[in-house]
Specification:
alpha/beta; five-stranded mixed β-sheet; 8 helices; 22% strand; globular
Length: 209
Amino acid sequence: MNKNKIKNLLNQRFRSFYPVVIDIETSGFDAKNNALLEIAVITLKMDSLGWLRTEKTIHFHIHPFSGSCIDPNSLIFNKIDPFNPLRKAISEKKALKKIFDLVNKGIKEEKCSKGIIVAHNAMFDYNFLMAAIERTGIKKNPFHPFVTFDTAALSGLILGQTVLAKACKKAGLCFDNSQAHSALYDTIKTANLFCELVNRLKKLGGWPL
């Protein structure tokens, strides 16, 4: 394989990590006690010219775990009715297993070493995901134990905006505020924003150095 092809491999771009965009909607701010209610994940792929693109999407509504705290103010904010049967919600464990199967498959196909979470205000999603992993007893976590890519921080650096809607608009991406705070919509927008930031650096000559 020639040098140009090698440098355009996904496993060469992020220190061999496999970036996975995640957004989580919850019943509050306490990762240990508030319920994870919705999660969406988008995997990414690098084309033959080295441009980052979205690839696969997976999305689940989640049953609140037994004994979880439900903050009514959070439900007003994200407009989720946790007990609506039309949500077709599944357990945390079932959702995480399906997500991890997808992530592990991508890691293997791209010859990466480990997944890495990409999220807007990433520590919020990271903390809820780690708490759910601990709660469900899942042993094999495909994600890096402490490193994340935070699009809020990256957007603040590159675009001068940290709010997702404002960062997307500054980057030239459309954003519908009426659809915000849906895990699927926010994940799509975060994934598009992250790809734009990475690709913008490439256009400016910042990758490869």
